[in-house]
Give the backbone structure.
Amino acid sequence: MNVDVEGIIQCIKHGDEDGVQTQLQEFNKQYAQCFFFDAEESERRKKRKLEEFRQNKVRDFADSDSDIEEYSQEDLGLILRQNLATVLVRFIRTGVKSRLLRVSLRTLRILSRDKKVLGPLVTDCALLTLAKLAGMTTSEIPDEASDPDSDFYDNIIASLAEAKALQTCADEDEGEAVDRNEEGSAFDDDDAKSDVSGDQDSISWLGSHRTSINEMHRGGVHHKVLERGRKDRRESKLGVEEEEDEGDPGEEAQRKEAMKVLCNVVYNSTWAQERFSALRIMCGLIESLSSSVSCSSPSSVQFYELRLLFLITALRPELSTQLQQEGGVSILTAALESCLEVQWKEQYECVLDPSAAPISLEASQRISEILKILFNITYSSHRQEPTEDDAALYRHLVAILRLCLMRKSVLADDTDELQGHTVNLLSALPLQCLDVLLTVPPEPDSDQCEGVNMDCVHNLLMFMERRLESGDKIKEKLTPILNLLTESCRAHRETRHYIRKHILPPLRDVSHRPEEGSTVKSRLIRLMTHLDTDVKHCAADLIFVLCKENVRRFVKYTGYGNAAGLLATRGLLGGQGARTSSSGTQYSSDSDSDTEEYRQVKDRINPVTGRVEAEQPDPMEGMTEEEKEEEAKRLIMLFNKLSRDNIIQPMGVDAEGKLVPMSGLTGNSLTEEPKSESDNDGDAGEGEDN
């Protein structure tokens, strides 16, 4: 770290605000996109240390109890950052000018990316100071017992001088060690330390400002090099420069910077998350957001209010419950309505203007945060029976979510992101409230099924196809939409008919396995044998529901080999059909008509693979009856041997259609092999149940 921390402290001590501002601006410019971790440097150290350990089994060091030995394992840059954070937290409480305050907060934001520097930022006084600057509280901040200003700054300067002296000695010793080593590398014990939470260091800051070097850095990996990172995704898209916010009013820019610091602190510190509620900052955040929602034009601070609210509800479930109890769904629904500039046509129908401009970049970012927060506070509502008031509130929300599915953003990636968050939220809401998606009267150019508007369902299908094609993070990105479509098909007959026509058209070509090809059906069937259990079950459930949970029809479209996993889980391996699902869904009794092409080859389809197999020669052709009997006995003996050695376990299907060991089946006599010298007993499993 090249910044002159001692110079900054001297400027603050003597009231030289121009000098402080100049040096902090230089720091902010240099480290605006830096994060305090260097993976490549750490990996190089590990490899160097391992290689040196292999070459030299025993190492001789100086007295390990000396301050120089101890400090050689520490990072001077870390000490500088910690002291700079300590000074700035005290400095911003003194009522500095607006411009200098923003520069100081921006420096704290950069420093707060490092967990090892969070100590001075997670005290009650620091959290309340930041909350007040962010506009989330107006209460007086209690003073912390501390040294007078002169003593405080003198102590900081003295500790820095001590650190520099120790660093100089450590560097000299390291140079001598390098000279003695033929390979030119010295043993570095930095990487031998374990990485611990920054909160342990935070607690050590709750006492005095002046702490010994060893106590200040006890435990944890220390990173010596800053790594260039990406700009904030939102600011990169919007083209916002981090250095200055010239277009923002002074107070608004100040609130934004304070919010950013709080976001970093809350994300990195469990202690800060716990104090967030105890200090009533959560209540202030809810009030601030509620006030900003009622404004005609939301300020740029609102995004960071939403980001902070998302972080705290994602990391602390009890605060998510608190937000819900304090009317969070209503507040956030109003915010969502404001971002989309909703105009109402009927009680649960929004005006959808095809000629409307795409959702702006800023609005897209705010909407994404709102949807994520709503998911955090409603995810447990899916299986609950809502009250009359809650049902009305959720239907109002679903009507707005329909707009999120139907409208596009300026960027295609933002459109996909909004639809993804919308799907997640829809899957968390009570199923009976989703009928609002289908109650919109169809337009002349709308997709329809039996007179019902399927535009929203069509968009969900297109969204699922895009996720199937991308193949990226399948479990996280695909299972929500699969679950949503499955539940919707169970609940709405028209939805099931429309989706079935799209995914499971009538069978015509059965010359290929069902999982082969690039169709939606083929992709879903391939997922039915996926390694991830959740993905496998979600894909199978959707196709099973589209087949009205009828086993024969399910096997017809997927092949018995692909269907076996779900059938075993449901206890349907016996082949029994089901008209009523486990959730009580009643299906109509209409038949599944076969196409002419399918009927012509139906008798030649292999039920396991689901396709017409080529004629295979008879492996027993030319064998006498005695030879066939001997071959059968040999196979039985092999199966019995595998069974006795617990390599395989013969299974069968019981009366309930579930797989059980063959030995547990009643009324099934197992063929026994003739006793021999090597095999005296054993069971043989019949192949027709596999």
